[in-house]
Amino acid sequence: MSSEPSHVVGPEERSRYELMRGKHAILSLAPIPRKLRWCGYLALIAALPGPIMLLLPADVRSTFLAGDPLTVPLAAVSITGLGVLSLLLGTLGLAFIGHRTVGHEQLPEPRIWTYIGLEDAFTFAAFTTGALATVTSVSILASGLAGTGAVVWLEGTGVQPYFSVPGLSLPPLAATVGGLVVAVTAFASSRWVAGLDGVDVN
Length: 202
Fold this sequence. Notes:
Layout: H1 16-24, H2 32-46, H3 49-55, H4 58-64, H5 75-101, H6 109-142, H7 148-156, H8 172-197
Helix pairs in contact: 2-5, 2-6, 2-8, 3-8, 5-6, 5-8
């Protein structure tokens, strides 16, 4: 059995920031390293447009795509890009808050309130804007995996999975690369912040 301490700690072992955050925060109840890890999982989902486009059936490609599946600009991928940017903002912001609060017992109360507000804001960016944009857009792109019938049905509801808006569309490859970069950043940040406190928060 591992001799490492449990991540569940009593109130007397928690920092002043954690105690105030747990009592007053709205979106900041989970530990920061855990939220960073969740950012990494969402970023991996955001990296799926490239693989999805490569797996599209040949009839879907020939009917709805006008170019290479990895490089053709698509409006839905731009939404994924918004999700990637939101996840990056959340990741960097949460890592900053973790660095500024872990092990700092003498933080003045006004600064603690500022950090709690910022943590809620970065959490919102990652898990509301980032998650919604990522999951929605990737789901739309994946509709073609079910064949042309699924795409035609979606178009009948007003959703065009493979529509391109000149100047406002991104290629799937860009979302895949961006998602992987953010995922690596989030997982590394999670381990770094957890290491600052010397506690495993898996």
